[in-house]
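worker-03 picked up job from queue 'complexes'. Input manifest follows; two sequence lines, order preserved.
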Amino acid sequence: DAGVTQSPTHLIKTRGQHVTLRCSPISGHKSVSWYQQVLGQGPQFIFQYYEKEERGRGNFPDRFSARQFPNYSSELNVNALLLGDSALYLCASSSPGTEYGYTFGSGTRLTVV
Amino acid sequence: LAKTTQPISMDSYEGQEVNITCSHNNIATNDYITWYQQFPSQGPRFIIQGYKTKVTNEVASLFIPADRKSSTLSLPRVSLSDTAVYYCLVVLGQTGANNLFFGTGTRLTVIP
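worker-03 finished. Artifact:
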């Protein structure tokens, strides 16, 4: 089975631009969460979606938005990029009742210049 | 969710047993203790989860005393490939409702 897949793996953007990151969860997983990890720190929660509905939102500005599609894949959008948005963006999927926690993808490395 | 406290870094020689202790004084009745491992430029990987007493799998053991205010991740006979950051998390319910709160983790360095 394929794990959580994220695209692209690396991305370079200019300040003020917009970016869209994509995530495909493990087959059968209906919950997708997004995390931002700045170098040297632990991942910080951004959003969680379950069955296409937002179930949780972290302490991030409105420039960050996300959505989940009927096939449970998800997009994270960030508008008006700032240098401080440079980070590894991680997607995780899970399924209710699983005993194995969340499964993370390898992330998208976003660099804002 | 209860805040966790763990050492910032640890060093160990290859072949030794490594124990990483995590404090979670404000853990609630419905909370579980979960550990993740993260290698550079990869997402965290679930290692083990427990509620009380001892849990063991093919990778690690998790010891949780009766008061549940701390827990210890035990890695038997570490190898160089165990060099990574280890995160202790307290999660609501067995599957962790909503967000996971990661601290800065413990950076384990295994020395040849």
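worker-03 released lock.
The longest strand of chain B covers residues 84-92.
Residues 37 and 102 of chain B are 11 Å apart (CA to CA).
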